[in-house]
Amino acid sequence: MAKTKILFVTHEMSPFLEISKISEITRQLPQAMQEKGFEIRILMPRFGNINERRNRLHEVIRLSGMNIVVDNNDNPLIIKVASLPTARMQVYFLDNEEYFQRKKVFRDDQGKFFEDNNERSLFFCKGVLETVKKLGWSPDVVHCHGWFTAMVPMYLKKVYHDDPTFKDAKVFYSLFEEDFGTDSLGSKYAEMPTQEDVNPEDSETFGSGNYVDVYKGALSYTDVAVLADENIPADILQYIDDNNIRVFKPETDLDYEAYSILYEEFAPEEVEA
Predict the structure, then answer these.
(1) Residue 87 has what pLDDT?
(2) DSSP string, 205-217
(3) Hey, is 135 helix, strand or coil?
(4) How far apart are CA 13 and CA 202, in angstroms?
(5) Of all residues in the chain, what percent carry a pLDDT higher than 70?
């Protein structure tokens, strides 16, 4: 049986950007899976506080030049890449001057949630899938980490479900303790995809755009929910249970053997000559 191809999608990864435990998981898990023979790709945003020179990012001309429509506006997408020589891994970065060229990630100098975080997330999620299409690489599993990736599952299941690149891809969504507090992406987060790509009922589970609703929206289109934190809100866990979503809970963040067995379930069948 062929090895599973895994696409990791995240907003942070060590050593490029370290905000939470997500950065370490998305650094170590892909390498562990690659060492077990899986084929991987990693995509993340190129936030403005990621030092291009120190991390040796450079533009991938053949992948850049696309426009991503968000809130009825065309937004240019630039793709950059960096290598982790010690791990023999490449990381692709999605860049856009308006959305990502600021020194803060999700909040301004006063700690205020950026008003366009909803647009930024949507741009990234759509950009990820268009980039992978342009790579000409078909993942068997798309493993999303964190709220910034929350629209990827819906787009895969509702917009790209017949695309040959993603036709049989399964969605994993890792849940973390990421409470926005009183902040929210707003109801506009659920409304923007309906301007261009999806039916209103497809995105209605994203609701008010608060932390719980954003996770529920992503989980609505998830095949396997990964409980990567201990303190997941009870109503999210109840939503998983009510909708019979498969749950995977690793013993520890380093439980790579269990991850490997899970990913192996979705390996493509080899076609006989």
Answers:
(1) 85
(2) GGTT-SHHHHHHH
(3) helix
(4) 30
(5) 98
